[in-house]
Write a structure and sequence with these properties.
alpha+beta; 13 strands; about 30% strand; globular
Length: about 290
């Protein structure tokens, strides 16, 4: 691969046969609970706006949604990506688990996919009920929208790659400040709860030449939105990434950036919504 060390081990005689072994899906979704069509329809009907939060460029803000409400994240002024964290509003230790969401649904999410919570709860926190960028699909570069593969831009990687440079408006720091402001926690404690994100509107994939994480200008335009049905009471934080549409770089003070709008709606499901139970595993781990 380019930019990697050449192999030191000679290929065995059966190398081609080994590479030709067909793959299998790690987690077949035939037994995964999928949202019913009437659930999607109910989350899209009877919408009544209850709250809204504008997230300024290169900043983050917190919001709250009750179980059964719909969270809409919307582009309002120009192409802009956002980094989303979600927590159980009553227990910050239950938070969005991007890795398991990726394992269950794939590298990018869209309508009908769920955002799963961390162990030991491992239950749906939210379900994508509408995605106006679902038309994009997977392009010729292998890129798609709304990824659960990127970790969030952060000051530690920035310092590593810029010989100690300091930058405080990357998404990790933005989310830390927002959570501290939204909960009253000291920043050092709030930072421990910031986690890998759903990269809303971000267009990403993996280079087919080197396997590296790639990004390209997001196709999002003002009016585009993604709607999430909150399956449990949620505290959320959204950062308007300093990379703007992430077509060139992130952790930047020069990239054009725009605000994002978070709206919280009641819907036809809200009044009668029952949150899903926590995971059924007994947590004994074979000890007794």
């Amino acid at each position: 691969m380019p930019n990697r060390r050449p192999p030191e081990t000679p290929a065995p005689a059966d190398a081609a046969a080994r590479r030709a072994v067909p793959p299998v899906i790690c987690y077949p979704d035939t037994t995964l609970p999928h949202p019913a069509e009437d659930m999607l329809a109910g989350a899209r009907s009877g919408l009544v706006l209850r709250d809204s939060v504008t997230v300024p460029p290169r900043e983050a803000r917190c919001f709250r949604a009750r179980a059964g409400q719909v969270i809409r994240i919307r582009s309002i002024e120009g192409p802009q990506v956002g980094d989303l964290n979600l927590w159980n509003a009553a227990d910050l230790s239950e938070r969005f688990y991007s890795g398991k969401t990726r394992a269950l649904h794939g590298t990018h999410v869209t309508t009908g996919d769920r955002l799963w919570s961390s162990f030991p709860s491992l239950r749906p926190m939210a379900t994508v009920v509408r995605d106006t960028l679902d038309w994009y699909g997977i392009d010729s570069f292998g890129a798609a929208v709304h990824d659960v593969i990127g970790t969030r831009c952060d000051p530690y990687t920035h310092a590593l790659l810029s010989d100690g440079g300091q930058y405080h408006h990357c998404c990790h720091s933005n989310l830390t400040r927002a959570l501290a402001a939204g909960t009253g926690l000291p920043a050092a404690e709030a930072e421990r709860h910031v986690h890998d994100v759903l990269n809303v509107f971000m267009c990403t994939g993996f280079s087919r030449g080197t396997g590296q994480y790639i990004m390209k200008a997001s196709p999002v335009r003002p009016g585009d939105h993604i709607d999430l049905l909150a399956e449990i009471d949620l505290l959320g934080a959204l950062s308007a990434c300093p990379g703007g549409d992430c077509g060139a770089e992130h952790s930047s003070d020069t990239a054009p950036c725009h605000p994002l709008l978070v709206e919280v709606f009641d819907c036809a499901l809200t009044a009668d919504w029952t949150p899903p139970p926590v995971n059924a595993y007994d947590r004994s781990h074979g000890t007794g």
